[in-house]
Amino acid sequence: MNGTPRLRSAFPSTPGSAQQGGTTRRVGSPSNGSSGGVHRSSPLPSIPQVQSSISSTPTSVPLIPITLVDAPTQRMYTAAVYGLLIVWRFYDWWTLVEAETTSLPLFGKWFLIDCAFLYGVPMLRIPWLEWSDSTAAVACLVHQVLNWMLMFRIPLPIEGWLMFFMKSIFDKEMSISENSVRPASILHNASLIMGRQIINILPEGSVTMNPDQFSFCIGDGHPSIAIPLRFNQTRPQHIELLRVDFDTNVNETITLTKKEMKKPLVVEEGVTIINYITKKPGLYRLQKVVDRSKSEVLRRMSDTLVLACPKGRVKSSASNKCIGDLSDLTMEIEGTPPLKVVYSRTANADKSVHHFQSIQPENFESPLLGNTRSGTLVVAGNQDVSWGRSQKISVPLNESMIPSGRWLYSIDEIHDAMGNVANFSSGADDGEHHYPKGVHLEQDFTVHERPVARLVNCDSRTPLKVPTGRATQLPVQYMTRGRTPDETSHTITWKFTPLDSLTKSGDHGDDYIEESYLAKTAHNIPTIRQPGLYTLTSVKSQFCEGEVKEPASCLLLNPPEPQLSISSENINDKCAGKPIGLLVDLDLIGTPPFVVRYDVITGSGTKSEIVNVKGVRQQLELKPRDAGHFKYRFTSIDDDVYKAHTLGGSEYVLEQDVKPPASASLRKSPENIDACIEEPVELHVDLFGERPFSLEYELVHNGKRERFKKANIETDFFTIKTNPLLAGGEYSLALTSVQDKTGCKIFLNSDVKFNVRRQRPKASFGLLDGKFKTIEVEGQSVQLPLRLTGRPPYTVSYRNLDDSPDRILTKTAKLANDYILADRRGKYEIVDVSDDKCPGTVNQQASTFEIDWIARPQIKVADTSVLTSAGDRWVKREVCEGDIDGTPPYAVKYQQRHKPESGSGSIINKEFEAALGLATISMETSKAGKYEYRFSEISDALYDHDSKKHTPLILEQKVNRKPSAHFIKPGQSYKYCKEDLAGDEVIPIRLEGVPPFSLEVEIKHQSSARPETVKFANIETHQYDFKIPHSKLSLGIHQVSVRKVRDSRGCQQKTEYGAPHVQVQVYDVPTIHPQESRTDYCVGERISYSLSGQPPFEIFYTFNGVSRKAKSQSTTFRRIAEKPGNFTITGVSDKASECKARTNISKLIHQMPSVRISKGREMEIDIHEGGHADLVFEFTGTPPFEFTYTRSTNVRKGQRSQVLETRRDVSDEFSKTVVSSLEGTYEVVAIKDRYCSFSTQGGEGGGKGHKLLQF
User: Fold this and answer.
1) What does the pLDDT average to over 446-453?
2) Is the pLDDT confidence value at 696 over 50?
3) Least confident of 120-124, 205-209, 574-578
4) Whole-angstrom distance, CA of residue 7 vs CA of residue 363
5) Label partner for 1144 (CA 20 to 30 A): which of 246, 685, 742, 981?
């Protein structure tokens, strides 16, 4: 099979099933003139197989060899097993539905089966069934959800359909004969009501052409049509049709052949249709119809039009338009007027549908204009039917095309006068002729935006100024909305007139030059050079003429180059009469603003300076501070048009020897001066002039002024140092005058203000708990509080007077309430303090602070009355296992060692905390044995444990084992019937401990919340036979457990909740009661009984003298009556108590009544108007009988029968005759006798089924 050629779409070959070995068969064309055949080529030599060092993985080979069972068969068996599991699963669900219960065991069963199947199938390694573990887990989860919904009867969306399906397979019930029967076969017994009688009244025949008034047309896609001829209650022998041609008005008589009338279509009983096939347009009419009896059939006169199918096209035009243009579109449509065309217009993504109605030529007349769609369209004497021919009409369409983008006009539908629709869209309705939409039915346009151009930053008030001979860009701004790549290219046209050719009003004259520029992108701008007036005249894109907006004119000017002329005069000192600077006048020509550059040349070098001039004149003052020879050279000038215009010549050079007057100034401090009280202040002064200098200054404070003078200062720098400032507040130091070698005294106006602090920083220790002393844990760091005044940060110097008093320690504090961290005991003293700038003082009354240590903790036994000393340890009296000694929890770290009576011991480390100096610990008594408590470590809130300073404290105590009592057979249930209650039940109990024992047993009834207690004392043996007193027992389940046991050592043990116990069940005799009090039943009814006791039950009964036994798993026993007879319950027993109760409950089952009409057969009778027929009914059962029958419409093909009337009648005999003259189908739907009833419809008795009747 693998040699068979496969299509590419074929399924792949089964993995692992390819043939191994053998010769290769090749199918090919015949060679050497031989006829087609199979050529066998010799097998190729085998390739030597290299023995791999790594063995192949066996997981790829199926567990069952494919040579034994091939892969498809293995998959088929697996699918069959899975299908059987599904059937089994739904069978279990159906048993739960019938029992109206749920089942956790069934859910567990299917959980195991599904997981075993889903995880087991991949282990077989069957090809295509080797899913992963994750897939198996997901499938197992899905199956468990289904199992949970089925086994716990969670409603499913398809439960109704599922129950219907399951009923059809598993719907069986147990009958009285203990046979499994289907209730439907008993409840829906078709033999009880049999027969049907049909009465027909023969009608009159007729024929109609096109009864549904369909519209027809013939076109390219529909070359022929079928005109229906409907015949009612007749069979035609001869048919003649009349056809009138639309183009020639010629009549044509058409006679149908026997072949065309051979196979009429039967629509319903008595109604047939013959379809006449035609390929010619025209007006068609029935002319003559004769039936088989040679009689002419009644014709219902009407004309049928067969038109040419409408069609159309769109006349194409230019595909590129500009926004605002008209569409200029023409639609040519062809058909029988009046016509209607539906077209769609799509502008970008916005689609709209429009239509034109009543499209017809001028002076057009047609009977179709009056909407005449039935009857005759041509009256006698007028054979003109030219109005039905197809005509071609042009429909112009001119619409303003806004917005821009892609536009599409498309013809979607064309309707003709008879309603024929040629639909060219994709959503054609039923009855419409759908045609594919061709190119001739659509016209698309691309609507482009019109470009806009204007000038920016240039108009009549703002000309464009450019240096002479230099080119610049014409500032054109090109804009268009919705710009696309093919629309960015454009052409700009402008007029140019030179300046000397402009008119007096500044406009273009007749002698102008027209220029244009082709821009490839929107950012390309034309370049201009000649001065004159430029005016934009037009802008055009690739497809559209644009609009030129204002400003559209720009004047290009070449301003003159900038020029500078300078004049200067000396600035002389009024005291010495020597020059101290120059006053320079600048006169400029050009376009403001200007930038003038000049160089200052001195003996120390050259320095460049810049002067910004907003107008055409400015005065420049040059006053150097240092003495010497100064040379000023003006190098270049800029205006608004020309840049870096060079200046040359001696007229742009100024020279002067300068001797400035003396001056002095205080150096500015980078921050405000903050002085300390009782400390001097230093200020620095810069001096200018010829040495030596004489300086005068004054110091002002609190309204008082103090003057100072310093003479013979030989340097250009001087430092003023004040006396120590003893008062705090604001001070002002001002320079008043300075005098140099020239002898001219110059008054100064330079001063500086500064603040002097009013206090010195201070330091002292703060209080801890109101004292300058603290007692702390040994070795712990202590924070000694500081109290500081001044401005942080502070520097505090201190020492420990008791530990190295000569060692001075330093603390840098950032807070006024900081602390010193100390970890040694002794007295600490503050030596010195300073803040960020000023030295301070120490408060001697709070300059020391003392630190001392707290004593370490100890542990010892507090109460020795219950303890005895034994060398290095204490021994406490013995206790019983579980006794509590002490009040936990409390303090200290200790070790608890336990040595049991047998086995290895254990060591547990524990700890506690004590709130007071006396602590009590809880001694361990949960397990028997010898306990030793070693208190090895002690620490308190202040000290950690120090093994060198602590001696362990040891306590010992013995704990005795508790006695125990348990049932020899725990969990066993002791049961008996209430009627057989005699003697005492014996329950053996085993005791452990030291006898004698005292025992307390608890007996609790399931319905009582309070148990009863029985006590026994002086039990000398280790096994005790417990007998339950009858006074403690009653009906139901009793739980017996040991509550308490005590031995001779005084140790006792109480049993906790959930301890081993036994049950004593006292059963009552089971009972059975009928759920209905009546004794008469009908075949098919269910007889139900209620059972009391514990299921499962066994029910003993007799039916028609035969004894039978049945089982019931629930408290309801139900059987369906499959045949008549006497049904008697004789006894019942349940499984739990094995007690049997005797009873005698009898029920009588009656046979169902039956009825037959027309001898139980279907009989059809034809009568004429006024005739009648007899309806004969025959009964079986117990009189009197009451029956119901209906008259329905006779069944027609394709139609449902409807009930016309329902009648009831009574008969005391076994037959009855009813006379009827009405047409219809007569059948019985319900029958009653004295005891039972049966109905095939909903009615008395609750629908189809049975009911016992009482008369």
Assistant:
1) 90
2) yes
3) 574-578
4) 67
5) 981
Cβ atoms of 156 and 1117 within 8 Å: the answer is no
> What secondary structure, in 3-state letters, does 519-554 show?
ECCCCCCCEECCCEEEEEEEEEECCCECEECCCCEE
Higher pLDDT, 465 or 625: 465
Give the other-Cβ count within 10 Å of 923's Cβ.
18
Q: Residue 68 has what pLDDT?
A: 86
| 452-455, strands of its sheet edge to edge | 476-479, 452-455, 547-548
What confidence score (pLDDT) does residue 124 get? 87
pLDDT, tens digit, for every residue of 1206-1254? 999 999 999 998 888 888 999 999 999 988 988 887 543 333 445 444 4
Residue from 378, 381, 418, 368 nearest 283 by CA: 378
Its sign, for the CA torsion 1156, 1161, 1162, 1164, is negative
**Element of type H or E holding 414:** strand 405-415
DSSP 1094: S
For residue 487, what pLDDT is reported?
Answer: 67
Closest CA to 314 of 412, 225, 388: 412
183's CB contacts (< 8 A; 6+ apart) are 171, 172, 173, 1084, 1120
pLDDT > 80? residue 705: yes
Alpha-carbon distance 699 to 722, whole Å? Answer: 9
The C-alpha R_g of the chain, in whole angstroms, comes to 63
Q: What is the mean pLDDT of residues 914-922?
A: 72
Among 689, 703, 702, CA closest to 748:
689
Question: Which position has the higher pLDDT, 488 or 773?
Answer: 773
pLDDT of residue 1117: 86
| Residue 716 vs residues 292, 663, 691, 722, 869: alpha-carbon distances, Å | 152, 10, 8, 20, 100
Identify the pLDDT of residue 1104.
Answer: 85
- Hey, what domains does the chain have and what are their CATH numbers? 71-170 (no CATH), 217-307 (2.60.40), 308-364+384-426+436-448 (2.60.40.2550), 452-557 (2.60.40), 563-656 (2.60.40), 678-756 (2.60.40.10), 762-853 (2.60.40.10), 867-933 (no CATH), 964-1067 (2.60.40.2550), 1156-1239 (2.60.40)
Q: How far is CA 914 from CA 854, 891, 909, 923, 951, in A?
A: 18, 4, 17, 16, 19
- With 0-12 / 13-18 / 19 or more C-beta atoms within 10 angstroms meaning exposed / middle / buried, residue 1181 is buried
499 has a pLDDT exceeding 90? no
Q: Are strands 674-675 and 745-756 parallel, antiparallel or unpaired?
A: parallel
pLDDT at 27 over 70: no
Among candidates 1198, 1225, 1193, 1164, which has minimal Cα distance to 273? 1198
pLDDT tens readout for residues 374-396? 567 877 667 788 888 999 999 88
**Is the distance from CB of 641 to CB of 591 less than 8 angstroms?**
yes
- Measured between alpha carbons, how far is 280 from 306 in angstroms, rounded to an integer? 8
3-state secondary structure of 958: strand
Tokens representing 1161? Answer: 């057969």
Q: 3-state DSSP call for residue 104?
A: helix
Which stretch of DSSP H or E encloses residue 94? helix 71-99
Residue 584 · residue 619 · CB < 8 Å: yes
Q: What percent of the chain has pLDDT over 70?
A: 85
Q: Confidence class of residue 46 from pLDDT cuts 50, 70 and 90?
A: very low
Does residue 1096 have a cis bond before it (omega within 30 degrees)?
yes
- Arithmetic mean of pLDDT over the chain: 81
Burial 984-1011 (b: 16+ CB within 10 A, else e): eeebebebebeeebbbbbbbbbeeeeeb
Question: Which residue shows structure tokens 């579109």?
Answer: 329
Burial (CB count within 10 angstroms: exposed 0-12, middle 13-18, buried 19+), residue 80: exposed
